[in-house]
Design a protein that fits this description.
This protein is an alpha+beta fold. 58% of the residues lie in helices and 8% in strands. Helix 15 runs antiparallel to helix 16.
Length: 763
């Protein structure tokens, strides 16, 4: 007796030490990680050209073209026009000229010494349009210095664009919406303007996105738990897991080990919060079950952890393996998301299996108070279960006999299994039939913003009055002997406005090359090809594709580069990634499922169901994008990201269901096990799906087309998978197949009964 008391006391002390140690460690992580999370934007890389493979033609062209210029530049374009639509007057042109020449001498933001001339290359160019209705001012930012931080965590590009817009308003009274005494409206656009507006759009990731996601999740958790305490325990777990992910990623990105961009950071927050809450819901639900069977919360937590570690770890491992397949991508932006997302999921897993149990046990024997006012209590029927947990289950109520929604649905699926899976499969197939209507061939840069921004409006005005493709021409690097042949071939391509040998005159500045000879470097000449369409449009991309074909026919060694060529190579790399990564993801996840469920058939069934669900989600999304939202198209990377997330995350819920079904099947047989498993997991898995869908939907607060499309596809796909695939299709298929589901494991050879009696109408 005394030895037992001493043993219990030592166990109590050990538990207290472990709980305290876990809380102290996580408090330290939260302190350091919170600061790192706030500084993630400082280590972002959002230059699209930096993500292209070195083998891409545009990358090789960009590398070779560096020899033709002393400094790579980033154009900032100011376009002005009279507000009344009249021609630009001499007085207006003179005022613009005076203002433009004064800007380089303006002081840098507070805390920085010098003037803007330190970051500009060459002279400012002021160019009236040929129709006389507009004026273009061209500034060339030093590309090598454009990524430097000046003040308030802003880089040179966004700071300079901000300075231009403020100066236009204060000096000329000219903005996009109003005209001052001169009667001019003004916009800042061009590559620098788009970069600045993108940075502003991504600025919501650090605060707004996370607050919206956490607020929505908190509301759902309050409805699920009906407790004032438990939702905050789960939210704290998610926040601290995000701090751990931010701490690791910040240090890796700062050291150059990992590349982080704006889209990866946004998806990271959503993934960590969604996964953390999902894992917490599963663990807390099982913990609540065990609290109704045993007296001490620590014992209940031990039993819950033993039951949940395998499915939660397998779920996290599946997602990690899926996102790491992105490392096979040709695009650096895709490759960067793989480790970023994997670190986030691993952080969510650690938080759910260490911090969450510690928080749930922090009050010792009184920890049930966290479930108030519906704290579970052990009942006499469960007391025998503590002595023989695997044998005495006949005295426990069968969860499939309940009167709630999920027991009733489980019994319905058991009675009508074959009609249920046939109808749901056909419904999903109808949705999947619209998949080919998804336009994912690329979009114009002006279409990526979902709100009105200065750069987009300025681009439209610029295209009305100036040669749109002259600002960022396509560049062709060619042997000197082939210049005439390549020039003739390029001029014959539809959509090409002009072909000019590069003499050092700035593109788009209106400076005439005159009789100056072209620059020759190592026997190579650079040709600037102005397209009719602006370089950031899909029309320009199509023109460059035709240009490459024409040029390569007469000069196989020629290289075609430039902004439109980079977009073309990005699209081609995305299409290649889709063909390569999708089969690898399916193979990796299939292997994990086979080992987890000890069954080839079950793994194949789950994969097929989730692929069908993904196709249906994408098909329905195509209908919504085309006919409801009116989106102009989608980036080629959207289907790839949607596939990786939906298949990996969709399999999660099937793992949660099927591990419980297998556990019950060992007791009562497969068909009754399906009914029991669905009845007992239906509520918690559906709650988890709603939480994850809500967190991904929060991406929609960032006004960018790519994130809005990912938000809708994943949110809708998760709900479809949770409410249809996991609730109807999978359990109905498993019920129809019976014990054959578990082939080739030993469970497939058991008769349709377990250790206990099975409900007759389910056999």
């Amino acid at each position: 007796m005394i030895l037992s008391m001493l043993s219990n006391r030592r166990s109590t002390i050990l538990r207290a030490v472990l709980v305290g140690l876990s809380l102290v460690v996580w408090l330290g992580i939260g302190s350091a990680g919170g600061m790192a999370q706030g500084k993630l934007s400082q280590v972002q890389t959002n230059d699209a050209s930096a993500f292209l493979p070195s083998s891409a033609e545009s990358t090789r062209a960009a590398e070779e073209s560096k020899a033709f210029v002393d400094t790579e530049t980033l154009p900032a374009l100011v376009v002005l026009q009279p507000a009344d639509g009249s021609d630009v007057t001499p007085d207006q042109l003179a005022a613009v000229q005076e203002w433009a020449e004064a800007v380089p001498e303006q002081a840098l933001p507070p805390g920085n010494e010098g003037t803007w001339s330190d970051y500009l290359v060459g002279d400012v160019a002021v160019v009236p349009s040929e129709d006389g209705e507009a004026v273009l001012v061209v500034y060339s930012l030093d590309g090598a210095k454009a990524d430097e931080l000046l003040a308030d965590e802003e880089g040179v590009t966004e700071s300079f664009v901000t300075a231009l817009r403020e100066s236009l308003e204060s000096e000329l009274g000219a903005t996009a919406t109003s005209a001052g005494e001169l009667g001019l409206q003004a916009w800042v656009t061009g590559p620098a303007g788009f970069v600045a507006d993108l940075v502003t759009a991504f600025g919501g990731i650090d605060g707004v996105l996370l607050l919206v996601a956490l607020g929505a999740v908190l509301l759902i958790l309050v409805l699920v738990y009906r407790s004032p305490f438990l939702p905050f325990v789960v939210i704290f777990t998610a926040v601290f897991a995000l701090c751990l992910a931010g701490l690791v990623i910040y240090n890796l990105a700062a050291n150059g080990t990992l590349v982080l961009n704006g889209q990866s950071q946004g998806i990271l927050s959503i993934l960590v919060v969604g996964a953390s809450v999902d894992y917490a819901l599963l663990l807390v639900a099982r913990y609540r079950e065990e609290l109704a069977r045993v007296e001490h919360p620590a014992q209940a937590m031990g039993r819950a952890l033993r039951a949940c570690v395998e499915p939660i770890a397998a779920s996290a491992g599946t997602v990690i393996a899926g996102v790491l397949c992105l490392l096979l991508s040709d695009l650096g932006s895709n490759r960067s998301l793989g480790p970023v997302a994997a670190i986030g999921i691993a952080s969510a897993l650690l938080g759910s299996l260490t911090l969450l149990p510690a928080l749930l046990l922090v009050f010792g024997r009184r920890s049930r108070i966290l479930f108030w006012p519906r704290a579970p209590r052990p009942v006499p029927a469960a007391a025998a279960d503590t002595q023989h947990p695997h044998v005495d289950t006949t005295i426990e109520p069968d969860p499939a006999d309940g009167t709630g929604l999920w027991p009733r649905l489980a019994r319905f699926v058991g009675r009508k299994a074959r009609p249920v899976w046939i109808v749901t499969a056909l419904a999903l197939a109808v949705g999947a039939a619209f998949l080919p209507t998804l336009n994912a061939s690329g979009t114009n840069q002006v279409d990526i913003f979902l709100t009105d921004v200065d750069a987009v409006a300025g681009e439209e005005v610029l295209a009305e009055h100036f040669p749109a493709g002259a600002v960022q021409p396509a560049i062709v690097l060619v042997d000197e002997a082939d210049v005439d042949a390549v020039t003739a071939a390029a001029e014959g391509v539809d959509g090409v406005e002009s072909v000019t040998p590069y003499t050092g005159a700035p593109a788009g500045a209106g400076a005439a090359a005159g009789d100056a000879p072209p620059i020759v470097v190592d026997g190579r000449v650079r040709l600037d090809v102005a397209t009719t369409a602006s370089a950031d449009t899909q029309d320009a991309v199509d023109t460059v594709e035709d240009l490459r074909t024409a040029v390569h026919e007469v000069s196989p060694t020629a290289l075609v580069g430039g902004a439109a060529a980079e977009t073309l190579d990005t699209n081609l790399a995305s299409e290649r990634d889709l063909r390569v990564i999708v089969p690898v993801v399916l193979l990796v996840i299939g292997v994990i499922l086979m080992f987890l469920l000890r069954s080839v058939v079950a793994a194949g069934l789950l994969l097929a169901a989730n692929v069908l669900s993904f196709a249906a989600a994408l098909g329905v999304s195509a209908i919504v994008f085309n006919h409801v939202f009116g989106f102009a198209g989608a980036d080629p990377v959207v289907p790839l990201f949607a596939f990786v997330f939906l298949v990996a995350l969709g399999v999660d819920y099937s793992i949660f269901l099927m591990t419980r079904v297998r556990e019950e099947s060992l007791k009562v047989g497969t068909r009754a096990g399906v009914v029991r498993g669905l009845a007992v997991t239906g509520g918690v898995i559906t709650s988890a799906g709603v939480v994850l869908a809500t967190t991904f939907a929060a991406l929609g607060v960032i006004p960018l087309l790519f994130l809005a499309q990912i938000a809708f596809i994943v949110a809708f796909g998760v709900l479809l998978d949770t409410l249809v695939v996991r609730s109807l299709l999978v359990p109905a298929l498993v019920h129809d197949l019976g014990r054959r589901t578990w082939w080739p494991s030993a469970l497939s050879r058991h008769q349709e009964h377990g250790l206990h009696k099975v409900t007759p109408d389910l056999e």
